[in-house]
Amino acid sequence: MDLSRPNGINSNISPPRADFNGSGRNMAARANILIYEMDEYFEAAELTNKVKMKYIFSRALSGVAKKWYEQHIRLDEEYGEKEYEQIKKTFLEHFAPDNAFQEESSKDKFFKLTQTREDQSFADALLTIAMEIPSYSTNNELLIDKIISGLNPKVRHHMHAVPDGSHFEKYLDAAREAEKFLKSDPVYLAELSAMQGKQ
Description:
Blueprint lengths: L26 H18 L4 H9 L5 H10 L11 H12 L3 H14 L6 H13 L2 H4 L2 H11 L2 H5 L10 H15 L3 H12 L2
Helix pairs in contact: 1-4, 6-8
C-alpha cells in the first residue's frame, strides 16, 4: 500500500495501514475492521470525497478487492460520482454479507467466553471472536476487562501486577506466567480437567 500523502491529506494524522485483498480466512472480519478504521480516520481528518476514495480507500485494497473496487469505481472515471458512504455499504454487502447477524452472534460469544483450557487457548479464542467485532478488537480496555473476568480464578489470583495503561498483551503474558506456575498444582489441574469435560 502506498502511504505517501498527496495534497489534501492532513500530515498530522496517519491513514490506516491496511491491505485488504478480499480473500483468505476471516475475510468478513477483516472487511469490517478496514471499514471501522477508515471511518475513524475520516472522522478525524477533513477530507474531500475524492481524496477519501482515490488516495485512502483505494490504496488499502489489493488482489480480488482491488479488482472489485476498479469495477465499481474506476469505470466511472470520476471518483466524485460515488460517495464513500455509498461504496462502503456496497463493499460490506459484498465482502461481509452476514455482517449484522455475525456481529450480534460474536458479541454474545465474546461476553460468554470463559477459560476452560490453558490461558493461551482462551486468549486465542478471545482474539478470534474480537476480530469479528471491529469496535471490540481495537478497544484495549474492553479486552483487558474480558481477559481478567474470563480467566480461571486461580490463574487470575496468581497473576503478577500489570502497570496501569498497559496493552492487553501484557495481561496475557502475566496470565501465561501464572499458568506455568499452576501447572505443578494437582488441584488446579483437576479443576481444569473437569471444566474441559463439561465442554
